[in-house]
Amino acid sequence: MCLASLPLQVSSPAAGQDVVREPGRDGGTPVDIEVDGPSEKNGPVYHLQGNVRIRYRTYLLRADDITYNEDTGEAVATGHVRLEGGPRSEIIQA
Predict the structure, then answer these.
(1) What is the pTM of this model?
(2) CA torsion, ordered 40, 35, 7, 47, to nearest 10 deg
(3) Among the listed residues 30, 33, 36, 29, the one whose alpha carbon sits nearest the alpha carbon of residue 20
(4) How do the pLDDT tens digits run along the chain, 94 residues long?
(5) CA separation (Å) from 34 to 20, 26, 81, 87, 88?
């Protein structure tokens, strides 16, 4: 799933939870990522663990773990995965 291609900013709004927010500048679409567990960043790649939630446009992607590349906008989800939303409000679980 390709989410965005603009740089992200990370903030910690509460203990034990990280939020990554793409600011939507230059016509980009905002991407919000919430993480209950640990997160790491290596260059443009985030590895997010523990009940990860990514909101992009009308989609919500949830998974146990997600690797997200801010340069390409690509997200790879593993574990319990659920994608919901879109023009038909579909739900896909794996």
Answers:
(1) 0.71
(2) 30
(3) 33
(4) 444 433 344 443 444 445 555 544 445 777 888 999 899 999 989 999 999 999 988 999 999 999 988 888 888 999 999 999 999 999 999 9
(5) 7, 23, 15, 23, 24
